[in-house]
Design a protein that fits this description.
single chain, 227 residues, alpha/beta, Rossmann fold, Arc Repressor Mutant, subunit A, five-stranded parallel beta sheet, four-stranded antiparallel beta sheet, 41% helix, elongated
Length: 227
């Protein structure tokens, strides 16, 4: 598996649902080394409880399980969560199942057996699903989620203030030095003043939430990112 893909996956949490013990253990042995946190369930009831407690970023679930199917589980979750990514696995190519699954806005539908290639493709699709969701890779193991105003490392999360979110978005999108004047005009508004002390405090607090040495000061001009 590509090193960059592994680095990106390490920022996310996963709920894996599979009723067959052998398959569950084998796939878990692979997935547990890739994600920040993994939650395992053997049926839909356990899975829903884990979902409510942990709010994972990705759900991988089998379709056919006792009492409640994977499709029924995801339908229930979709009533309250339109953003969680879902990959469905199935030993069946039944057209009815596949049509039902399509309505659930899946990242991927995997036909068993789950090979390394199929799993790689599905996880790559999961990461790509964030390309239009304003999620940026800052450095190895670090992601910036603009929509959530959140920076995630492999073991920490940092909530950004409105100004910090605006500044980081500006630095990424412009991909150049952002001048002090731009900072004052765009990030500071008419209700506040960017005094030297205010800017120093802002930058000091902002750096604490970034990978080391990513934010560079260009003396007398402004700031830029080194990604």
């Amino acid at each position: 598996m590509d090193k960059l893909l592994i680095s990106k996956l390490s920022n996310f949490t996963l709920l894996y649902v599979e009723d067959e013990e052998g398959i569950r253990n084998n796939i878990n042995d692979i997935l547990k080394h890739l994600f920040k946190e993994i939650y395992i369930a053997k049926n839909a009831k356990e899975a829903f409880a884990l979902y409510e407690t942990n709010k994972p970023d990705l759900i991988i679930t089998d379709i056919r399980m006792p009492n409640e199917t994977g499709i029924e589980l995801i339908r229930k979750i979709r009533k309250r969560d339109s953003k969680v990514r879902v990959i469905i696995t199935s030993a069946h190519t039944d057209l009815e199942y596949m049509l039902e699954a399509t309505e659930l806005h899946l990242v991927k539908y995997i036909i068993k057996p789950i090979t390394e290639g199929k799993l790689d493709d599905a996880l790559e699709a999961f990461i790509k699903s964030y390309d239009t969701a304003r999620v940026y890779n800052l450095s190895e193991g670090w992601l910036f989620d603009e929509s959530k105003s959140l920076i995630q490392s492999s073991n920490e999360e940092f909530k950004l203030t409105k100004k910090e979110n605006q500044f980081l978005k500006l630095l990424i999108q412009k991909n150049r030095i952002i001048t002090y004047e731009e900072m004052e005009n765009i990030i500071w508004n008419e209700d506040s003043v960017m005094t030297p002390n205010a800017m120093r405090l802002f930058i000091k607090n902002f750096r604490k939430k970034l990978p080391e040495d990513v934010l560079k000061n260009v003396q007398g001009t402004g700031y830029r990112l080194v990604l």
